[in-house]
Amino acid sequence: MKDEMSSMTCNDVWDLVELPNGVKTIGCKWVFKTKKDSLGNVERYKARLVAKGFTQKEGIDYTETFSPVSKKDSLCIILALVAHFDLELQQMDVKTTFLNGELNEEVYMKQPEGFPSSDGEQLVCKLKKSIYGLKQASRQWYLKFHNIISSFGFVENVMD
């Protein structure tokens, strides 16, 4: 939980503010997972702070949720080309993926359980970036990734 809160701080995910009049907050919860190695041995324990996005209201807390995904056939073609031409293929994993997507909407979230602010428990988190559980989280990540990858000259496969 401390590691997750550290990630939130390092990525400047929210500001603690007074809740504006007439605005509702969304809740959040901790989700715990046990990561195991290939033999089934416990490798580490993981905690993730997740927004209760199911309480978000369309048009207020979010507008769009669409985020494109690639087709399985496209991946198979790429893998076939890599094998045929004896190329190298690299994969990457972005830790704290969704914390990179900037929010366009004003979303207020309750403070995470177990980590009350020293400035006061009455304050709420005004989200600046998306977090897991928000309806628009995957879209915001896609937009950020698309902008960065396009700046290097890559072009989206519009057939997907």
Strand composition percent: 15-25%
Morphology call: globular
Q: What is the residue-mean pLDDT, rounded to a whole number?
A: 91
Q: What is the helix tally?
A: 3
Spatial strand order of the main sheet: 1-5-4
What ranges have pLDDT less than 50 throughout 5 or more consecutive residues? none
Distance between the termini: 37 Å
Helix-and-strand structural type: alpha+beta
Largest sheet: 3 strands, antiparallel
> What's the helix-strand series?
HEEEHEEH
Q: Tell me the total number of β-strands.
A: 5
Q: Residue share in helices?
A: 10-25%
Rg estimate, integer Å:
19 Å
Pfam family, one: RVT_2
InterPro entries: DNA/RNA_pol_sf, RVT_2
Protein name: Reverse transcriptase Ty1/copia-type domain-containing protein
Domain Reverse transcriptase Ty1/copia-type: 11-155
SSE layout and pairing:
Layout: H1 2-10, E1 14-17, E2 28-36, E3 42-51, H2 72-84, E4 102-109, E5 124-129, H3 137-151
Antiparallel strand pairs: 1-5, 2-3, 4-5
Features:
single chain, two-stranded antiparallel sheet, 5 strands, 23% strand, RVT_2, three-stranded antiparallel sheet, alpha+beta, Reverse transcriptase Ty1/copia-type domain-containing protein, 160 residues
What does this structure look like?
This is Reverse transcriptase Ty1/copia-type domain-containing protein. InterPro entries: DNA/RNA_pol_sf, RVT_2. It comes from Vitis vinifera (Grape). With 160 residues, the chain is an alpha+beta fold. 23% of the residues lie in helices and 23% in strands. The protein has helices spanning 2-10, 72-84, 137-151; strands spanning 14-17, 28-36, 42-51, 102-109, 124-129. The strands form two sheets. The protein has a three-stranded antiparallel β-sheet with strand order 1-5-4, covered by helices on one side. A hairpin with a 5-residue loop joins strand 2 and strand 3 (42-51). The longest helix is centred in the C-terminal third of the chain and has 15 residues, at 137-151. The model has no long low-confidence stretch (mean pLDDT 91).
